[in-house]
Amino acid sequence: MKKWTIFAAIFCVALFITCKKNSDDTGSGTQPDATLTDAVLTQNLSFPWEILWGPDNKLWITERGGKISRVDPATGVATPVFTLSDVVSQGEGGLLGMVLHPDFSTIPEVFVAYNYNKAGVYTKKIVKFTYNGTTLVNPVVLLDNIPASTTHNGTRLAISPDKKLFVTSGDASVSSRAQDKTNSAGKIQRINLDGSIPADNPVAGSTLWSYGHRNPQGLVFVGDRLYSSEHGNTTDDEVNIIQKDRNFGWPNVEGFCNTTTEQTFCAANNVAEPIFAWTPTIAPSGIDFYSHNSIPQWKNSLLLAVLKDQELLQLKLNTAGDKVEVINTFYKNTYGRMRDLAISPIGDVYIITSNGSNDKIIKVSVK
């Protein structure tokens, strides 16, 4: 009897030591939280709208007035690349989304979305340029005639793993457009990188991918899953998983299908509900996915730049990636309105502000 007791005790101690070792090992188990530091990298910007990490190890940014620049992440020095002469910045409009070709080192193409006046009508178009090492050349219009407005432009771009270009468009201040499948406002559109329409889009000959959107300003692929952040009206800002040919409800549904009228509409119109919604609204903008070990407490999280509530949010996802388990707030009221963010290959995070006066790039890294 005593031998079994001694054996059990030794076994338990050995098991504890093994488990403790595994939990402390940075290669497995739960890592301790990293201590973060934040600092201004670049300032004197004017309404920056897009920031992304380029394959050339530079930060690429757009400013609403029409300027595209590359920023050295070590020094913060911004080098102008190109200024689009036909951009018209009105209200929240102007030069907005940008994305680089996934094979940029061999196919140096830059895709941008911006507003301009077309025969006196405020309009949005998507244009592809080639980067020659110094500036942008050879513009090719991929999409045009997208309704624009001083508000609700959406206009975030993302390229999928199978190299399709996705474009968000708000309702351009006319809510009924979002449910009209023949109107490109209030939609997420999908095209090939040459501007042609994929054969497997939901409607033959149409760029439409999903509809019923009010003002989606964040877009990121995590594998082949597409997440979007979207501005609500007076309630229900949303984070959505975008699905082919699904209706996201606006203006008939705000947030979840949780009223009798909404439930009836949702059942009849193939409505997809958000994975999270905020009431009161916070004004969510750019979104990205954190998958690095550098900041272990942020791993497997969406990071969301927030305008009205002036903060960075960490949305910790469940293992399946279809639910938000925990939300943590960072830098609230520290830098003002936050528009977008980018993540470097080593896990540093770069945030752009949208205050309109001395806007900045903020670098967040491990202390």
TrEMBL record:
Coiled coil: none
Superkingdom: Bacteria
InterPro entries tied to this protein: 6-blade_b-propeller_TolB-like, Glc/Sorbosone_DH, Quinoprot_gluc/sorb_DH_b-prop
Domain Glucose/Sorbosone dehydrogenase: from-to ranges: 46-357
PANTHER family hit by this protein: HEDGEHOG-INTERACTING PROTEIN, HIPL1 PROTEIN
Protein name: PQQ-dependent sugar dehydrogenase
Gene source species: Mucilaginibacter glaciei
Lineage, highest ranks first: Bacteria, Pseudomonadati, Bacteroidota, Sphingobacteriia, Sphingobacteriales
